[in-house]
Write a structure and sequence with these properties.
Two copies of one chain form a homodimer.
Chain A: H1 8-28, E1 34-40, H2 45-61, E2 64-70, H3 75-88, E3 94-97, H4 107-113, H5 125-132, H6 141-152, E4 161-165, H7 172-180, E5 187-191, H8 198-202, E6 207-210, E7 228-231, E8 235-238, E9 246-249, H9 254-260, E10 263-264, H10 271-286
Parallel strand pairs in A: 1-2, 1-3, 4-5, 4-6, 6-7, 7-10
Antiparallel strand pairs in A: 8-9
Helix pairs in contact in A: 1-10, 6-7, 6-10
Chain lengths: 291, 291
Amino acid sequence: MDGKRIDGKAIAKRIEEEVASDVARLRAAGTEPRLVSLALDEEDPSFASYLRAREAACRRVAIRSDVETVPSASGERGFLEALDRLGADASVHAILLKLPLPAGFSEERIFSRIEPEKDVEGHHPLNAGLLALGRPRFAPCTALAVLEILAAEGIALAGKHAVILGRSRVVGAPLAALLLRKGTDATVTVCHSRTGDLARFARQADLLVAAVGRPEFVPGDWVRPGAVVVDVGTHSVPDPSSAKGWRLAGDVRFDEAEAACSRITPVPGGVGPVTTAVLLRATARAAGGAR
Amino acid sequence: MDGKRIDGKAIAKRIEEEVASDVARLRAAGTEPRLVSLALDEEDPSFASYLRAREAACRRVAIRSDVETVPSASGERGFLEALDRLGADASVHAILLKLPLPAGFSEERIFSRIEPEKDVEGHHPLNAGLLALGRPRFAPCTALAVLEILAAEGIALAGKHAVILGRSRVVGAPLAALLLRKGTDATVTVCHSRTGDLARFARQADLLVAAVGRPEFVPGDWVRPGAVVVDVGTHSVPDPSSAKGWRLAGDVRFDEAEAACSRITPVPGGVGPVTTAVLLRATARAAGGAR
């Protein structure tokens, strides 16, 4: 394997080993860590495939994983009531939502209704605030995964310039807060769709994080020679040369960026598996695990 | 007055006029907006002088302002109990703390104990989270004051680069969140004491915000020609040429920066009065005022 490519699967595996040992301890003490995903009963093949991957990961570390479905006909109110039930159910330690929420549902109302102690994705304003104040409890797992990758690779950021392309509530914004914290100490620039000249900022980055949500949006000549590139995007793009007719791609043109960078996360096999592992760890923590 | 200098007092006056009219409406409807500052009974001349200025501002807009003192001997526990009393007292709409907190007091415990609906400085994690999620309720008044100044001066930031020197919980971090919001749309860089080369970042700024906490730290040659400079610092520095022996100074070397910039906030008379006006507005809102 190319020495520049960061092996997200290997990092995830190490985290999962820690989580498995925490879960074993919890189970020995009589607690069965349990993650519940809440979704409408509408058909959604992409969610089903996501759930399968996540349930396999839960099985590997012996976390119980269920899906609770709410009848579409009961609408947002039914969804909120289900959140209340899960919040009150002592056998449930972690609650996960499928994003984006169904059309017409209020993120504001729904996120505020997740029991903060079970909010493993850090959606609740209280958890977003603890993160903003520099003492995160639960934070968006994708943003945490970027930090895990940097730590695993021994990439120190003090005095370095991190440029984040994307200001989303689930990646760009929380990642900026995490990178700015004392102890991490990056200088952080957040760019977005209204930024005048993305290339100018990207080219200054010691750490370039692409969280744009557009396949292969970042060309290689935006990567400063020697920069570290973390690609948060996952998209399926048409590929006639593949038997399936498609392949997975990130937000970065991988081959071009790989030539310029010092280290890069591939898609698939980069941020994705680490994000899942971080979710497992948050679930173990919510169930009373130590780490 | 020099055309480059932003007149913070005039901006504050316009805000106070709005607040006075909101307060008059509230009083006509039977509500007396009331702000309570909580402090230990220890002697602190700087706080007394700050309180006098703030109480004068409250009088101008007919907000009731009190100071509740807690005996030092009762410690953090007494302080927390006082917060509980103020939170439960329906005649109190807004609670203000003196920062920094007394040595040994836990910001974490104290900020989490302020009734969020009365937390006009946005200290509570819930309010910090609502800000981080892009729907601020109460936010640190100094950060809001910077936005007020930009709006009052008609300075649009979409596609512009804002560079914030300082990552503090009360200025730098919340200001970054405010500037990044949709509708404001700045590209934002946050620098701090661990940033390798502050000058390099400062010189790229269309908007340079100095929130360093060190008097006259930013030299004029850090200011890009034509940039807007907002100076958040307030320090008293020795000045033998003054009858008092001292003068007020900001984080920026004003004369040097004024030569290079297009607009600049002076110290005093810049961010300070607007911050006070923003606090008055937050108090009126907490009491049920409309804006």
